[in-house]
Amino acid sequence: MSDVIMRQNDRRPYMNFVLSDANGVVDLTNETVTLTAKSSAGAIKMKGSTNPSSSEGTITITNSTAGAGRYQWHADDCDTPATFLAEFETENLAGEIATYPNNGHIEILIKPEIST
To answer: In angstroms, rounded to a whole number, what is the distance separating the alpha carbons of residues 86 and 34?
Structure first.
């Protein structure tokens, strides 16, 4: 079963997340967070960041010490029905990167819309 299910061309609800590892929740204070999702063919479909470019979705940290945030879908994130594998990366002020989840991926399913 997919971790996140959206309907084609929808941009809500936002994707809420809590980043954690074997030690518990990850403190996101002073961290840059990015989301990347790829198709089964390996092409990047979704990209988001706490410092997004105009072609990326926006990540907002909602509770940094609890590792919590939300991803606001970019206009073209959900335009293609398919299953995508995603991961979050954090980068601290020293430039150290960590990937979450560290034991797999997040599966995002975009279901086709009935009406166009």
So the answer is: 10
**Number of helices and strands in the chain (H, E):** 0, 11
Place of tokens 């198709």: 39
| Domain at 4-111: CATH code | 2.60.40.3350
Assess contact for 34 and 89: CB atoms under 8 A: yes
Tens of pLDDT, residue by residue over 38-79, are: 998 889 999 999 999 988 999 999 999 999 999 999 989 999
Domain ranges of the chain: 4-111
pTM above 0.70, yes or no: yes
Buried b / exposed e over 74-113, threshold 16 CB at 10 Å, is beebbeeeeebbbbbbbeeeeeeeeebeeeeebebebeee
CA–CA separation, 90 and 44 (whole Å): 18
